[in-house]
Design goal:
Length: 339
């Protein structure tokens, strides 16, 4: 991935703090101009495993099959093909084998209590309603008119095989909605970065730095990145990386000096990003004090309380843009859209 681009709009913040839009949006736009529809693959839209497993009240068997809770369909974010009738997971599997339904589609079924679960291809339980759902926008970009048309044709073929013809929304309206969401996403899918530079004469060893982070509740992941996870659901609140881009490697921690780190906050994916940024900035200041460093922007200029407060105001604006589209920062839908 190329270096993240500063996108916060307030001129007071320009050159003050690293606030970046994900470059994947722009890369995806370029790719779409040179890639055929059939070649596009986006793991975000593959069948999703959501929530917890829930036993269903189907026929008695051993062991009892389980359902995996799924996000409810959203007309704001997805184009839905609604199929009503008696359809089991096995029947859906057979019907979909001859159709290219793995491409950017998730499948769910309605169960008791108006809950939605992921379809299990080995499940004999018959649903009275299933839906094939195409997400309108992601970090890979928006769906095109041609992709929406292909989706509709594939859903028709599946419906014929199941004997349950799908009901589809107006595809032109879906295409317009996808365009609007793509433009909106560029304003809210941002990352805020805060740098801490340490002395080049006596920088801290990686082992000392990580020991300090552990005391702060921040652990080193298998990806070589330090993660500050939520105690409630284990989701990242923010992350900490080396400024040189190299991962933290356990075998070299005792001998490797660290001259600089960057703390990163994904705004849309983080619950209460304003409070989280405040905590992240405070951690950066504590690390700078402990290891005789400085909290700086990308140009090496000192960041203080005044700049921090200005950033918080901009983050509050982004939260407002999210809520205007009926989505909360850090919600399951936000994490799905911006994963």
């Amino acid at each position: 991935m190329s270096e993240l681009q500063l996108i916060v709009g307030a001129s007071a913040l320009v050159g003050v703090v690293g606030v970046y839009g994900w470059s994947r949006w722009q890369e995806a736009r370029v790719r779409r101009t040179s890639t055929t529809t059939a070649e596009v693959r986006d793991p975000l839209f593959e069948p999703q495993v959501e929530g917890t497993a829930v036993p269903h009240k189907g026929m008695v068997s051993s062991p009892l099959p389980v359902w995996r809770e799924a996000l409810a369909p959203s007309p704001l974010w997805e184009c839905a093909a609604v199929m009503k009738g008696s359809v089991s997971g096995r029947q859906w599997r057979m019907a979909s084998q001859n159709c290219d339904v793995g491409w950017r589609v998730r499948w769910i079924g309605r169960v008791e209590g108006d809950r939605w679960v992921c379809l299990d291809p080995e499940d004999d339980h018959c649903f009275t309603e299933i839906q094939g759902l195409l997400q309108l926008v992601s970090r890979a970009g928006r769906v095109t008119d041609a992709q929406l048309q292909i989706f509709a044709e594939v859903m028709q073929r599946v419906g014929v095989a199941l004997g349950a013809m799908p009901v589809l929304p107006d595809l032109k309206a879906m295409a317009q909605r996808a365009t609007e969401l793509d433009e909106w996403s560029l304003q809210v899918d941002i990352v805020v970065g805060v740098n801490v530079n340490f002395s080049s004469i006596k920088p801290p060893l990686a082992s000392r730095l990580l020991d300090c982070l552990v005391q702060e509740g921040i652990g080193l992941g298998e990806d070589g990145v330090c993660h500050a996870n939520s105690a409630v659901d284990g989701i990242d609140r923010f992350t900490l990386i080396r400024q040189d881009g190299a991962p933290f490697i356990p075998l070299t921690l005792e001998h490797e000096p660290i001259t600089g780190i960057t703390l990163l906050l994904e705004v849309a994916r983080t619950p209460d990003p304003v409070t989280t940024f405040r905590e992240m900035f405070a951690l950066a200041e504590r690390l700078a004090l402990l290891f005789q460093g400085q909290v700086v922007d990308d140009q090496g200029e000192r960041l203080g309380v005044g700049q921090s407060q200005a950033i918080e105001r901009q983050l509050a604006r982004v939260v407002g843009l999210l809520e205007a589209q009926q989505i909360s920062a850090g919600s399951p839908w936000a994490r799905q859209l911006f994963s």
